[in-house]
Amino acid sequence: LQEVYVGKETMCTVDGLHFNSTYSARVKAFNKSGVSPYSKTLVLQTSEDTQSEEQTLPFPVPLERSQLRRMSPFSSTLNLQPSFSGRSYFELRSSAHQLSLHSSLQSLNSAVAWFSFDPSSAHADIIFSNDNLTVTCNSYDDRVVLGKTGFSKGLHYWELSIDRYDNHPDPAFGVARIDVLKDAMLGKDDKAWAMYVDNNRSWFMHNNSHTNRTEGGITKGATVGVLLDLTRRTLTFSINEDQQGPVAFENLEGLFFPAVSLNRNVQV
Asked: How far apart are CA 26 and CA 43, in angstroms?
């Protein structure tokens, strides 16, 4: 048995899982009133060593087989559902391999978790295409969409390409908690940390506080980079591979999902 997470989050990422292996998982909750019983033990099967997409294992779920991309060992995100309000406690048991809890990502040159956008958590106005790698929106109002994979440790970098940019909107890019507001610009509440940008300049925003106006914007074809360093607990942004402003946010801790807000004038 290996304990992999204790805390208040309802999701966690487990690093160091192996290809073609079976894991058993269970969860319990505790607060000042006591400790709940364990949930039923569920069997999670990782896929064979292929070069397809990364596996994300929601918990609790029936047995599912997915495929992986560019990681061995890899990370899995598990959705914890405790029996009552309080803290979650999660255990994972390996039937074939010992579980490693060390981050599999050591540098920007290492393999990273591959993810797509998540239709299940997005606002209803978000439009998905290209196997959920491309998003736009039905509304002129800002709508939020998250990535499928959450990160709680390690160093992670991803880029977003601006496929369409009409009438100078100001999309926002960054990270968010799973329960972020979906019907407002990213960063309007305390569940998101973002950079919003127009064709001339950018700002950082968290909890509706706007900081660090920086010259330089985006156009069609631009690339926005997001660097989430959970070892240093920082978030940094770039545009076309040049850092945009100073370090945007510090003291980040917990589970973060890649996040974007946009309207119908933008496709990412």
From this structure: 9
C-alpha to C-alpha distance for 192 and 174, rounded to whole angstroms: 7
CA dihedral 189→179→142→155, nearest 10 degrees, is 90
- Determine the Cα–Cα distance for residues 266 and 143; give it in Å rounded to an integer: 11
Query: Which tokens hold the place of 79?
Result: 């959705």
Which residue has better confidence, 80 or 199?
A: 199
CA–CA dist 211, 204 (Å, integer): 5
Tell me if the bond preceding 82 is cis, omega within 30° of 0: no
pLDDT, tens digit, for every residue of 28-78?
Answer: 887 777 888 888 777 776 666 544 444 444 333 333 333 323 333 344 444
Helix (H, G, I), strand (E, B) or coil at 75: strand
Collapsed DSSP state (helix, strand, coil) of residue 121 = helix
Q: Which residue has the tokens 């997409």?
A: 53
Distance CA 202, CA 121 (A): 26
Decide if domain 117-267 falls under CATH 3.90.226.10: no
CA of 24: how far to CAs of 5, 41, 48, 204, 215, in Å? 14, 6, 17, 41, 51
Residue 21 Rama label (left phi>0; alpha psi -120 to 50; beta): beta
**pTM of this structure:** 0.63
Domain ranges, ordered by start, for the chain: 1-48+86-95, 117-267
CATH topology of domain 1-48+86-95: Immunoglobulin-like (2.60.40)
Radius of gyration of the chain (CA): 19
Element (H, E) at 213: strand 209-215
Closest alpha carbon to 152 in 17, 24, 13: 13
Which two three-digit tokens encode residue 257?
């999902």
pLDDT in tens, 59-73: 333 333 333 233 333
